[in-house]
Task: structure prediction
Amino acid sequence: MNWLPLAEQVRAQGGRCDFILFPRRSDPDHAGLYRPEIQKHALFTEPIDDAFAFSETTENDCIVKIQQIVTRRRYAGALMTTCHVGPELKLKKWIQAVSPETRIIGLQHGFVQPWTYYETLFDSFDYLGVFGKGFLDRISSEFRERLIPLSLPILDSYYQKQARTQETIIFALQKDLDIDLVKQLAMGIEASTKKKIVLRAHPEHVCVYDSLRGMFEFSNPEQPLGEALHRAQAVITSGSTLALASLTLKIPTVILPFMGGEHYAKFRIVADSLTAESITDVLHKFNDELFWRLTQR
Result:
């Protein structure tokens, strides 16, 4: 969904933009790849299992399909919406065997990454898209000229200063944040801000936090992010691209010093510690319009 606006723009300008899809069966988020608006542009869809192996076909059959398509259509490029696991690591080899002029573009997955690991993957793509110019210095000079700073095309559809319909704070979660810590933080933030915490777990990890149902409201993972953010007066995350959307909408956003979140300290929106007090301290900064301007810059 983040990249559909780009596909639509290419088509509106008379270009061709098709999809090949590898939904992972264990990821509920990937069920969205079967939506009609995506499938109508999909050349084929081949699901993969937890080990990222094809579950309904063989790798050789998939290679044949891809090479036949590329030979006929001669695409200028292939953009992989991730680039670190499974069939995507082999696409360059498969495609360029029959269409060497097709450029393969990988994409940073999520927020801060283990960049040294990404450097070991550069045989799998010609260029790597990263989320913003701030990441250009994270890769060694050997690969830097192959980096392209990008944003998410869907952000263009988000507008600042929307009216907030409820006084809620979205707490975005991945599976790695301890359940008891989440409970402690959420209760503390609710007490100090007098706003309701709404937990929005990653679609793949919703069940991890089931024990907190009844204590806190949960955001429906199938609800589009833009709609969920429309309710929010603030966002807390440990380092999800959700932060890009919330900042685009000019929603006060706090990043936790966890799962790489501390790498964003220079933007002054990272909590000093994993405590409710530190999180609310950052939220209070957004009351200053000057702080907002510095953050946006």
User: Anything to note?
Assistant: The chain has two domains: 4-156, 158-296.
